[in-house]
Amino acid sequence: MVSVRVRPVGERAFLLETATLDDVLALHAGLEVSRPDGVIDLVPAARTVLVRVDPRAIPLSAARTWAERTAAAAEHHAAGNGSTVEVEVAYDGDDLADTAALLGLTADELVRRHTDAAWTVAFTGFAPGFGYLVSDDWPYDVPRLATPRTRVPAGAVGLAAGFAGAYPRETPGGWRLIGRTAAPLFDPDAASPALLAPGMRVQFRAVPDIPLAASRTASPPGSVTRGLVVTEPGLLATLQDAGRSGAASMGVAGSGALDRAALRTAHRLLGNPEDATGIEITMGGFRAVARRDLWFAVTGAWGPVRLDGREVDPYEAHEWPSGAELHVDWFAHGARAYLAVRGGLEGPTVLGSRSTDVMAGLGPEPLRAGTEVGVADAASAPIPPSLFAPWGAPHDDELEIELAPGPREDWFTPEALTTLYESVWTVSNHADRVGARLDGPELVRVRTGELPSEGMVAGALQVPPSGRPTILLADGPVTGGYPVIAVVTDASLDLVAQARPGTRIRFRHARRTG
Predict the structure, then answer these.
(1) Which member of 294, 355, 390, 401 has the greatest number of CB atoms within 10 A?
(2) Within 10 Å of residue 415's Cβ, how many Cβ atoms?
(3) What is the CA radius of gyration of the chain?
(4) What is the C-alpha to C-alpha distance for residues 264 and 315, in angstroms, rounded to an integer?
């Protein structure tokens, strides 16, 4: 039996909090074996398991009941009952000598203890394929670097707290580096993309030298069906669809269009399936030329849309003759527009999606001048004869956003919760597909200690030590160590997608639905 406390994470998820990491491993194993349809993700972390559901398939209350019954029946087994992976390491890391001295060991003793230990993947997070490894044979609590590195190379093997881990791709990081590996830690094209999955056993083996691991993020593009060529991408233009679902346990975020309703509308205007691929244009300045006769629609943020210099209306389907230039100019309202083409767009598929994940480096590269984008044949219905819904420019001066309860409300003073709902917040210049940092008053904690890493969802209001929250968005981290005070409701997430730097936000409580 595993004793759990259920903590809400918005309307579509909850945390099962346990006392120990061993409890997490036992609980996660039980949940995986018995998970019902509609449970999208199970994300184990240091002391919790995040359960994310599709409420169309299973009510949240039913999922909670299943999870609590599973916890009551969960059994502890010896750690690492999964398959064993051997990872070769060249122990020549920049921090090897200093870390050994910090632990009262020689460098050779540290290497021996690291290779003698039987490691288990407790959970993944931080980056796709990054496994947090634990071992009963490893008694050391290794402090992170006081100042994280801005660049840790792919394949670096490090230590932090009681964990060992290896970086699948180049990224910033604060772990102490003791070596490097060429193991394929994450290959999105493999049947099992993450080499190290929760529950696996890992044995490190010292080798004299190895080449640095290469970071691989997507299949190389094949032949491109003629469609359009980008001549100016603007601030940022990426391919996006409905996103990746069910890969959070590998450290892979959902990604996909930030304003999902706008992309769906663009596809409906053209007779495409709603999950087809389009182009998300951030702040405007986008130009492209058709390589053959096309139909297109632009939705979402508002700005001038011109076809060969002639202004055309958004939220309508238009013919796009071969050789004509489409210009989506800088936006006057909103932050993201969506360009859809009849048939949908082509691009490398990673874990079932063509979406670009800018944080993890998954999926197609952001579009650049000269990028050729092919057109698929996904149209499933005729182009509607007229508009089927009213539209207007996004309201981006001041937004009213609904919040559902977060798992760590009790980390904050009662006054902080009042401040959250009674203050006017401003979207800072630090806003992208990963998250939107807000400027405003400090949200004061009653607990100041470090929160063990736990599962995150899009819409989570993470509060770092500064006390100013960040709204995590589609490319945000799958796990994190800052407390989440509340979660933006699913219906309000599309509004946040259109918030520009300087947009004011007021929060209000979401209506309780049971």
Answers:
(1) 355
(2) 10
(3) 24
(4) 11
Residue 183 to residue 212: CA distance in whole angstroms = 9
Is there a single domain that holds both residue 96 and residue 61?
Answer: no
Give the separation between CA 362 and CA 193, rounded to whole angstroms: 12
State the residue range of the domain holding 192.
84-206
Residues in CB range of 307: below 8 A, 6 or more apart: 318, 320, 324, 325, 326, 327
Beta bridge partners of 13: 52
Report yes or no on 336 lying in a domain: yes
Task: Specify the number of domains making up the chain.
Answer: 4
What's this model's pTM, rounded to 2 decimal places? 0.89
Q: CB neighbours of 57 closer than 8 A, spacing ≥ 6?
A: 37, 38
The three-class DSSP label of residue 426 is strand
Name the one residue in this structure whose structure tokens are 């998250």. 435
Q: How far, in Å, CA of 99 to CA of 93, rounded? A: 10
Residue whose structure tokens are 């009674």: 422
What sign does the CA torsion over 403, 482, 356, 188 have? negative
Give the model's pLDDT for residue 82.
63
Identify whether the C-beta of residue 288 lies closer than 8 Å to the C-beta of residue 319.
no
CA distances from 225 to 139, 290, 315 (A): 56, 12, 26
Q: Are residues 434 and 461 in the same domain?
A: yes
pLDDT in tens, 304-337: 999 999 999 999 999 999 999 999 999 999 999 9
Residue with tokens 């100042």: 147
C-alpha pair distances (Å), 465 with each of 307, 430, 451, 486: 48, 17, 11, 16
Identify the H or E element spanning 231.
strand 228-232
Per residue in 365-409, pLDDT (tens digit) is 999 999 999 999 988 889 888 655 567 777 768 999 999 999 999
Q: Which residue's structure tokens are 């994300």?
A: 43
In whole angstroms, what is the distance from residue 185 CA to residue 104 CA?
31
241 and 364 belong to one structural domain: yes
pLDDT tens-place string over residues 441-484 = 999 999 987 788 899 999 999 999 889 999 999 999 899 889 99
